[in-house]
UniProtKB/TrEMBL annotation:
It is found in: Cytoplasm. The keyword Calcium does not apply. It comes from Tunturiibacter psychrotolerans. Modulates RecA activity. Residues 67-108 form the RecX second three-helical domain. Residues 175-206 are annotated as: Disordered. The gene is recX. Residues 179-188 have a biased composition (Acidic residues). It holds the Pfam family RecX_HTH2. This is Regulatory protein RecX. GO terms for cellular component: cytoplasm. Keywords: Cytoplasm.
Length: 206
């Protein structure tokens, strides 16, 4: 039995795109790039669609409904104050969402200017209920803890200080040296399914 193909959505003009964009932004904030991506699926193809999206974005900015600056500030505040993420993790996430490099840099400079990174890392550990490595698997657990803190955006020096303060057995710290972890090269962000920031895990096609 053949299944009917879903009907292709009819493209909408500027007025329809504006109505859709306002509804989307009412559910949660978006960057300009993210909103344009969503509108593109509904806009006309070619120059007509591009002009309509441009007009909608200009109007939304004039009404103060759309602002990458406000998005970056709010997103950073949530990630730092509630999720307890380090600066480098928030930097990576903002850039993935399409926030410009210079805006990311200035936002993080302000938000993290007076932050004690070691204290923030300890708050992250407490929030995640991470336990001090112990027993015969202490070394393996130490490496796992180190990797989680790397993915959470903390620098090598902060991670080293946190681990040293735990007074772990010398063998558990083998290979973990101050300045020896490159936090800039961490891979996938830590436990995305468990980090509820109110932004990242809602349906992208809302």
């Amino acid at each position: 039995m053949a299944f009917a193909r879903p009907k292709k959505r009819e493209p909408v003009g500027e007025a329809g795109l504006f109505e859709y964009a306002v509804g989307t932004l009412a559910r949660r904030m978006r960057t300009v790039r993210d909103l344009r991506r969503l509108m593109k699926a509904r806009a006309e193809e070619g120059d007509a669609g591009e002009r309509a999206m441009d007009a909608v974005i200009v109007r939304l900015k004039e009404l103060n409904y759309l602002s990458d600056t406000r998005f970056a500030e709010d997103y950073t505040r949530v990630r730092k104050e509630h999720e307890k993420f380090g600066r480098r993790r928030v930097q990576q996430d903002l850039m993935m969402k399409g926030v410009g490099k210079e805006l990311v840099a200035s936002t993080l400079e302000t938000a993290y200017e007076d932050v004690d990174e070691v204290a923030l890392a300890r708050q992250y550990i407490a929030r995640k209920r991470m336990k001090k490595p112990s027993g015969e698997n202490a070394q393996k657990e130490t490496v796992r803890t180190m990797n989680r803190l790397m993915r959470a955006g903390f620098s090598s020096n902060a991670i080293f200080k946190v681990l040293k303060a735990w007074d772990l057995p010398e063998e558990a710290l083998t290979g973990v040296e101050e300045g020896g972890v490159d936090s800039d090269s961490y891979a996938e962000p830590d436990e995305r399914a468990g980090d509820s920031d109110g932004y990242a895990r809602q349906n992208e096609d809302e």
